[in-house]
Amino acid sequence: MRETYVRFLRRRGLRTCAAATEREALEVMRTTRLGAVVTAMRLRDGTALGIVRAACAARPALPAIVVTGHISESERAEAHAAGASGYVGAAAGLAGIAAVLDDLGGRASRARRPRLSQLSD
Question: S-S: 64 plus which of 37, 48, 49, 111, CB 3.0-4.6 Å?
């Protein structure tokens, strides 16, 4: 899925950095100025929550979108508490991610922390 998301984001004109694990993602965030973070909830060595917390600590206005295969209210609440600005069910596909990115892009220009979005199929 990571490669699919990378290709999709590049087609939208965004530069991308990919990471397979939480540790790799944290390293990318330490060395690269990101415009947004899109991460799967479950990773081989952790969850998206550590990535989202680190992203928000480094840059509080940085949009962080969590993609999950199994939407649950408790998981959504955890992602929100960690600082996620978007929560997307994988079943929503690339259109779901695009909708959240478009929504966050419009609000970011108004200098507000975006609300948590939730999309499913």
Answer: 37
Q: How many CB atoms lie within 10 A of CB 96?
A: 22
Query: Whose CA is closest to 21, among 44, 42, 54?
Result: 44
Residues 110 and 71: their CA atoms lie apart, in Å, by 29
Contacts 24+ apart (CB under 8 A), 88-95: 88/117, 88/118, 88/119, 89/118, 89/119, 89/120, 89/121, 90/1, 91/120, 91/121, 92/119, 92/120, 92/121, 93/121, 94/4, 94/5, 94/8
Beta bridge partners of 89: 68
Tell me: the pLDDT tens digits for 51-96? 999 999 998 888 899 999 988 999 999 999 999 999 999 888 888 8
- Report the CATH number of the 2-119 domain: 3.40.50.2300
Q: 65 pairs with which residues across the strands?
A: 38, 86
18, two tokens: 């990919």
- Full-model pTM: 0.81
